[in-house]
């Protein structure tokens, strides 16, 4: 099984602020602004719309923000975010360099995406959501998807009869905008990983922040300095984690391996074949979520 650490959601270039960890511990990865998307007021998180939350978090800033007219809801992990057609499953669309990298790494059925992004804690002040001044900015895992199948969509393609529920996916709606096509990764109905009990959905979002979802090291200088299990490092001192193979990017210490994560690349792929530790790590992330 391959693990793909997949960076998604608001960042310093797209959105310009972190996604929120809410006062009650819930997390929401805000999908990036994009003209290949849908209005954020159409997307719901509990009783609020994405528009409500984005506007509240931006109002307290002195920045001259551009209006966010649409967001790219991808990965699409939660059934309740927008109205769904029968047969809906979590999914992820990829194009361009990210699509090519995943294909070159042999990512396919059975492999597991762990989605991460930039997060910061919030509080409610005067009835509105605000980022807590001085709270750390961190990279945090917020969702998962185990691949059942990969569907290639080219401009002008129709969807297979059993995939009509994908008709509103942004890589289908805007397929003409991706002339070299998109790969859409569709989730399994349930996770199929050794040691994980049945009944856990094949894709979804973590409901609340937990420390073991945090990638950024507790003593990190910046959010891209991660603390990972020591088995990410091989005996030569480097790693097979794509884009992060060089030994100088890694250092071992008593509580794990510190990685100065590469700025390049959305998708970091690790082949866990022959590593029983990887199943325990995934188990601890996904069981009792």
Task: Explain what the structure shows.
By secondary structure, this protein is α+β, with helices and mostly antiparallel strands. The chain has four helices and 15 strands. It has one domain. The protein has helices at 50-59, 96-104, 170-173, 276-286, and strands at 2-7, 19-21, 33-38, 44-45, 48-49, 91-94, 112-125, 128-131, 138-153, 182-187, 203-205, 225-228, 250-253, 256-260, 267-271. The longest helix is centred in the C-terminal third of the chain and has 11 residues, at 276-286. The model has no long low-confidence stretch (mean pLDDT 95).
Low-confidence stretches: none
Straight-line N-to-C gap: 21 Å
Beta-strand portion reads 25-35%
Number of strands: 15
Instruction: Determine Rg (CA atoms, Å).
Output: 19 Å
- Structural class, from secondary structure content? alpha+beta
**What's the number of structural domains?**
1
Report helical residue fraction.
10-25%
In sequence order, what are the helices and strands, one letter per element?
A: EEEEEHEHEEEHEEEEEEH
Largest sheet: 9 strands, mixed
**What is the general shape?**
globular
Provide the residue-averaged pLDDT. 95
Output the number of helix runs: 4
């Amino acid at each position: 099984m391959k693990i793909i650490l997949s960076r998604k959601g608001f960042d310093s270039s797209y959105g310009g602020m972190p996604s929120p960890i809410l006062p009650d511990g819930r997390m929401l990865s805000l999908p990036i602004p994009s003209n290949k998307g849908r209005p954020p007021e159409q997307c719901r998180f509990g009783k609020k719309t994405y528009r409500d939350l984005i506007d509240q978090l931006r109002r307290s800033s002195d920045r001259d923000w551009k209006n966010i007219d649409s967001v790219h809801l991808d990965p699409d992990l939660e059934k309740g975010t927008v109205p769904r057609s029968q047969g809906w499953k979590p999914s992820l669309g990829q194009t361009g360099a990210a699509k090519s990298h995943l294909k070159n790494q042999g990512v396919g059925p059975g492999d597991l995406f762990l989605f991460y992004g930039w997060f910061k804690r919030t509080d409610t002040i005067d009835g509105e959501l605000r980022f807590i001044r001085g709270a750390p900015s961190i990279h945090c895992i917020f969702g998962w998807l185990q691949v059942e199948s990969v569907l290639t969509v080219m401009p002008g393609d129709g969807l297979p009869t059993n995939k009509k529920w994908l008709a509103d996916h942004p890589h289908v709606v805007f397929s003409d905008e991706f002339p070299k096509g998109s790969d859409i990764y569709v989730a399994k109905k349930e996770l199929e990983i050794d040691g994980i009990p049945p009944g856990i959905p094949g894709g979804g979002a973590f409901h609340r922040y937990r420390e073991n979802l945090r990638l950024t090291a507790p003593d990190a200088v910046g959010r891209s300095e991660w603390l990972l299990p020591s088995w990410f490092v091989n005996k030569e001192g480097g790693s097979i984690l794509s884009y992060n193979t060089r030994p100088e990017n890694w250092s071992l210490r008593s509580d794990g391996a510190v990685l100065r994560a590469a700025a390049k690349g959305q998708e970091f792929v690790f082949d866990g074949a022959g590593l029983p530790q990887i199943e325990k790590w995934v188990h601890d992330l996904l069981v009792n979520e």
